[in-house]
Design brief:
Number of domains: 3
Helix content: 40-55%
Strand content: 5-15%
Radius of gyration: 37 Å
Number of strands: 9
Strand order of the largest sheet: 3-2-5-6
Structural class: alpha+beta
Number of helices: 10
Length: 373
């Protein structure tokens, strides 16, 4: 009996230890909250580092991008997120994704206090390389909690000031807020150029606010904002004279361009005829001709052809000069129309005004005129 009791105790102890071990092993696949995401971020970073060292930039870009998306505040530190964003920016720079590179590198350097000095220098050098390929917009918005959309895409976090990067080309900035009129700004981005824009959203009229509330009874507090009505819809149909300034300016630009092109063609033709005359004069002098040969009574028959060529040269030269003068006159008049308020058209310059933006590239230099047509 005693032996059987001992065996029973030993069996129960073995069963209990086996059950506890099984329970412990069953809990192992379920880590504490945040540990799984953290290990995922580290895996992506290791994969991105190996691909970058091997020169596989597309693979490194995908890994660092996945790491940044997985690096939420609960699962990563501010330094880790800044490092991942900077490394992703360097990958984008190698792949010539200049706007994305500038955006991620600039965001990373905003947390420079959390970065080692060596990484700060690497990211600053990368941002300097990306900057010549993009335009920079410093945007101020009032009120600061207004929603900002860039080319239809909403910025994630509201702020009073923004530093934004753009590929060269035309872009639209839009801001809106409850109880405020919407603001729009369209501009042509030029690489290596900085823009400063301030957007103020005036308070909407009391009637407009009340009508919006009456039209949506029981709607949630954060109801989507409807675009504000165009100015023409609020003030009635525009006068037929309102279309003439833009039409006249377009016509002026067309005439300026056409006459300048025609003048260049005429002068080029005159130059060709003049060159033929000079070459023929060298040949004739070698044959014994003098400057008085065509003035003599027994002048050769070739003198008539020479006179026709001279008349042709003078005619094309005159037409070329007249065309260039005409082009200059229309060009000055068209440019002046942007800065002059013509009373007969019944309106002043647009609220946005006309802005002159200097631009320069490796191939050309000039100015960019921005304003209402």
């Amino acid at each position: 009996m005693r032996c059987g009791a001992h065996l029973l105790v030993i069996g129960l102890a073995a069963f209990a230890s086996t059950g506890l071990a099984g329970a412990a092993s069953a809990e192992e696949p379920y880590p504490l909250p945040g540990q799984s995401d953290r290990s995922t971020v580290k895996d992506h970073v290791r994969r991105g580092r190996r691909a970058r060292e091997a020169g596989r930039w597309n693979e490194a870009y995908a890994a660092y991008r996945a790491a940044l998306e997985a690096a939420t505040p609960p699962s990563s530190t501010e330094r880790e997120r800044a490092e991942i964003a900077g490394e992703l920016g360097l990958c984008e720079l190698a792949l010539r994704k200049y706007r994305d590179a500038a955006e991620h590198l600039a965001w990373s350097l905003e947390q420079r206090e959390a970065l080692p000095v060596a990484q700060q220098k690497r990211f600053e050098q990368g941002l300097r390389k990306a900057a010549p390929h993009v335009a920079t917009l410093y945007l101020s918005v009032d009120p600061p909690d207004a929603e900002v959309l860039i080319d239809g895409e909403r910025l994630g976090q509201a702020a009073r000031t923004y530093r934004l990067f753009f590929e060269p080309g035309q872009h639209m900035v839009r801001a809106r807020a409850p109880g405020r009129e919407e603001a729009f700004h369209s501009f042509g981005a030029v690489a290596k150029t900085e823009y400063n824009v301030t957007m103020h959203l005036p308070r909407a009229a009391a009637g407009a606010v009340s009508s919006e509330k009456e039209g949506a009874p029981g709607s949630p507090k954060e109801a989507p904002l409807a675009p504000s009505a165009p100015a023409a819809a609020r003030t009635g149909p525009p006068s037929r004279w309102a279309f003439w300034p833009g039409t006249a300016r377009i016509g002026g630009i067309a005439v300026t361009t056409a006459t300048a092109a025609a003048g260049a063609v005429f002068l080029l033709r005159a130059h060709v005829v003049h060159s033929n005359l000079r070459e023929g004069d060298v040949v004739r002098r070698a044959q014994g001709w003098t400057s008085h040969t065509c003035r003599e009574a027994s002048a050769p028959a070739a003198c008539a052809d020479i006179r026709d060529q001279v008349n042709e040269r003078d005619l094309f030269a005159t037409l070329g000069k007249v065309s260039l003068v005409t082009s200059a006159v229309f060009g000055v008049a068209t440019a002046a129309s942007f800065f002059t308020e013509v009373a007969v058209f019944g309106g002043g310059p647009s609220a946005a005004g006309v802005r002159v933006v200097p631009m320069a590239t490796s191939e050309r230099a000039g100015v960019l005129l921005e304003g209402a047509w």
